[in-house]
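subagent[fold] <- orchestrator: predict structure for attached chain, return C-alpha cells only, no commentary.
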Amino acid sequence: MAWNVVIAGGGFGGAMAARELERLMPRQSARLVLVNDTNFMLYTPFLPEAAAGTLEPRHVVTPLREILKRTNLRLGTIAAHDPAARTVELRTREGEVEQLPYDQLLLSLGSVSRALPIPGLAQHAIGFKSLADAIWLRNHVVETLEAANASEDPARREEWLTYVFVGGGYAGLEALAELQDFATDAIERYPRARLHGMRWVLVEATGRVLPEIDAGLADYALRQLRGRGIDFRLGATLEEVSAGSARLSTGETLPTRTVVWTAGVTPHPSLRDLSVPLDERGRVPVDECLRVGGMDSVWAIGDCAAAPDPCGGLCPPTAQHAVRQGRVAARNIASELGVGSARPFSYRGRAAFVNLGRYKAVGRLGRLKFRGFLAWWMARTYHMSQIPGLARKARAVLDWTASLPFPRDTSEVGSIGHPKHLDATMVPWDSSTSSSRSSSDSPRE
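subagent[fold] -> orchestrator:
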C-alpha cells in the first residue's frame, strides 16, 4: 500500500520537506505530491540583489523539478479542504478543479505582504515579497531616471527622484541599500537627473531599525546608510499615499512616485479557506512536533504556522526556521507512516546577516558579531552554502564575478513577459497595395 502525502506550498519549508521525504520513504511506500503556484522555489535573501541587477533574476530561483526527483509537482492552489474525507481541492492554472486524497497533509503556504488600511496604499505602493516585485521595482527605478532626465519641471523631477521605503526590518533595509546602490551607479548616465539629485527615505514606526539583531550592529547600519545620504524617519508612520506624494504622521508630505511597502508579512490568505484552526494573526497553531492541534494527519510549518520557539514565544518568519521545520515535519510524517520516530522542533537561530550594499554588511554568528567587509563576505558565503542546487551556486558566483569589473545594465525591460497581441503589431494587409508594390519592386526589363 502506498501512502498519499500532499504538501501545500513549495517555498523553503515545503521544498525541504519533500526532499527529506524522498530520502526517508521507500519509493513504493509513498506517493508525494507538492502543490505550488510556480514551478520554482525563490531564494528570498537574494531578492534585493536581483532587484539591483547584481544577480540575474533567473539565478535567484531554483526549479523544483531540478531538486525533487520523485515528487509529483502540480501547479495550482489549494482551494478547499475536507478533513473528514481527507481530501484537498486543487485548482489548476487553467481553472480546473481536482480532488487530491491524502493520508498526511503538510501546509507550507508561506506569507504575503501585510497591508494596512492606509488611504492609497493598495493603489500606489509596491510590495517587496516576490520575484515579480523585484523585477518591476528595478524597471521602475530606471523609468524614473528616464522621466526625470527628460522633464523640464523641477517639481516633477523631485517626484520622480524621491524613493520612500516603509519598514526598517531585514527586507526594507536590504532592498533600500541595494536599490540606492544601483541607482547611484545608473544616474551617472542621466546628466540632468544627476544635477537635480536623488532622495532616498526610510520610514520606520519604532525608534530603531533592524529590531531582529543587536542594537550596536543596527546603529552601525544606520550610520553607514546615513553616510550615503539616505534619510531616516524613525518613530513615524505612513498616513496616506497618492500618485505623486506620501504623507507621514509627522505632518511631512514627501513628493514621490515610488513607495515600497516592507512593513511586515501576514500568513497566506488561502488558509482561511481550509478547515484548520487559526490564531488571531491568521496562523495555524501547531505543537512542538509541528502537528496542527486536534488533527492527527495535518501539519503546518514556515510563515503560515504559529510554532513554539525553543527560545520562548513563537518562531519568527525566517527562511532558517522554515528549512529546519521542513526537515522535522518530514521526519514526523514518516514516523506516522511507520518509518523512524517522531521528534520535536528544537532549532535555535545562530546566524543572521543584513547586506548594506557597497561590500558592507552586519551580522552575527552565534555570539560573535561582524560588520563591514568581513560581514559582507561572510553573508555571501553563508547564502552560497544555503541556496539549493550546484548549478544555482555556480551561476550566482559568475554573476557576482562579472559585476566587479563591469557597470550594471540599465536597460528597462518591463515589457518582457507582456507581449502585444498580433492585432496591435501587424499592419493590415491590402491586396492592391501589395500588388502595386510587387510590380514596382520587380527588376526592369
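orchestrator: received. Logging for downstream: The radius of gyration is 25 Å. Residues 42 and 61 are 4 Å apart (CA to CA).
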